[in-house]
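Sanity check record (used in CI):
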Amino acid sequence: MSAPDPDPLARERAHLAASRAALRAMREDVQALDIRDVTANWVNAVVLERQIEERIKALADLAHTPLFFGRLDYRPTTQQGQRFYIGRRHVHDAAGDPMVIDWRAPVSQPFYQASRKNPQDVRLRRRFGYTGGDLTAYEDEHLDDPAEAETTSKLLQAEIERPRVGPMRDIVATIQPEQDEIVRSGLTGTVCVQGGPGTGKTAVGLHRVAYLLYAHRERLARTGTLVIGPNRSFLQYIEQVLPALGELEVKQATVDDLVAHVEVRGTDEAATAVVKGDARMAEVLRRAVRSHVTPPTEPLVVVRGSRRWRIPAYELEEMVRELLDRDIRYGAAREALPQRIAHAVLVRMEQAGEAPDDRVQDAVARNAAVKAAVKAIWPPVDPAKLVLRLLSDAAFLAAHAEGLLSEDEQKAVLWTKPPRSVKSARWSAADAVLIDEATDLVARTPSLGHVVLDEAQDLSPMQYRAVGRRCSTGSATVLGDLAQGTTPWATESWAEALRHLGKPDALVEELTAGFRVPREVIAYASRLLPHMSPGLAQVKSVRESPGSLEVRRAAGPGDLDAHTVAACVDALGNEGSIGLIAADARVPAVADALTAAGMPYLSPGEETTAASRLTLVPASLAKGLEYDYVVLDEPAAVVDGEPDERTGLRRLYVALTRAVSGLTVVHAAPLPAQLT
Ligand SMILES: Nc1ncnc2c1ncn2[C@@H]1O[C@H](COP(=O)(O)OP(=O)(O)OP(=O)(O)O)[C@@H](O)[C@H]1O
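Expected output for HelD family protein:
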């Protein structure tokens, strides 16, 4: 046993200073690189220079981001009793010895996983607390001391409650064991995470990407990674997390962005969108695309020089049948057909004693008669025009929907006033997904290496398919909460969703510990659960914050705006961000009331700053977002804003679960009965 350290904090600060100096030296080394001798040409030099610039950027020492946040001391018997500092990036000294280890490295894993039950050879785990950029505190767990009492980390609590300004931040310092398991699960498997509000699904998904990029950098650099979120404001909210972890190459998109083949200007009735989003539409489209193939009835005659070569109809038909039977895209088959025909011609030439070479084969494939035959047998299909016809031409739809869609369902998807052209059509979001499916039937959509799909519960089967084809040869992280499904087609079961995604073997994990919402607030919101998602467990909040919930009643509807504004004024008395959530229909009135009171406010997605902390959030955009304090205006209006009660209650559940530190509910109308 070594003697107790008289001033541990000073020693840790010294290590921080030394690590910073080492990082500076690493940066200076890169800056001093002279590439004149090693680059053969100008292009090489430009590429190398860019890489060097990126490396310099990656080695920046951000004053407000702690360089390390943890320390592991191994037992003397393992890792030679080594001590590792865990941080956001790897730092080494002049001799190449590590000063800080990347949180994603295998030796860092016990920082997240080791417990008294399974210490994983760790003797001491130390967590560091920072104020600004200064190391100001630490917390120790002696994992080999059975007598030491199990306590919840105060630093974790402080980290969660640290007031929010600006976009979402990373959680590397405090990833929990069950979260870490998902973060570090392998690249080849798809993981689906079911978790109630604030259980860290989004955080886990983003950290998993960072981990996978570390562990499989080259492969993913080649194939690409993508994070899919429900809307722009959500993507803006999360966009800083990966760059803060040093990952700058991950793309972000909504599902609508992925399928933007046409301009979306129209909307569908719920019943129509449900049918258009149903997986049976995929089969309707498949049939419709393949219906363009017309089996040949005439022989094909190819003239070359003085000779004529004849391919009989039955032989052409065989080629067509063979191409149709294979899992090959319509467009690829269309390209293969002329080559098949040319091959048949060449066989005949050989039989006639000619010795054609490869150039002849290509020439025959490009022969006008062959081209004309292919055009007649296998004409090009324009995906948007095909969908336009399906939705306009009742007979065409009926022919391909036979046995799949009922008459009523067919009626539901048909346009009452068919548009004249693809350009003039008022395409809906669901139509764009149909066009994406048709596009993929014609030409295979390239697959990425890994896709994170957040708020997945809201996708239709056809949307799952659209996402699935973008990771058909890669893997996915699917994140969602069945209780927060608010679309008419929201999924009721992950098994079904994963089937549509094309990943039926995905592992489904559940997160149950709630980090965002205080206990009192989650208990209040969970009263809705039995009425909208029976069977789903209530989130267990890790945080007790008495006094975090307040319900205020206005004397009458005329007083509601004033009460809501007053609640915002009170909330602004606290530090951090304030979200004022109101039913979409109430937003204009609430906005006017704020303006009249001289209170500036932001829209979701606009970054909160110390000077501007209040955001007015329509209930329909609240999903995935969070604020230190939330004022919820008129819950009954939030419920009434949806087409049915269950969706209304789910929307309310989302709105009630956005607060980190406090929720004030303001109402004039009676509260929904399920809440009281
Ligand atoms: N291990 C953790 N340490 C610190 N903070 C955490 C941890 N896990 C989650 N959080 C925080 O809890 C909050 C909620 O996390 P997140 O938004 O990822 O939850 P979610 O499950 O996606 O929620 P929702 O279902 O509402 O979208 C965030 O502020 C996140 O940073």
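The pocket of adenosine-5'-triphosphate is lined by residues 159-160, 171, 174-176, 179, 195, 197-203, 481, 484, 515-516, 624, 626, 657 (CB under 6 Å). If this sentence no longer matches the regenerated tokens, the check is flagged for review.
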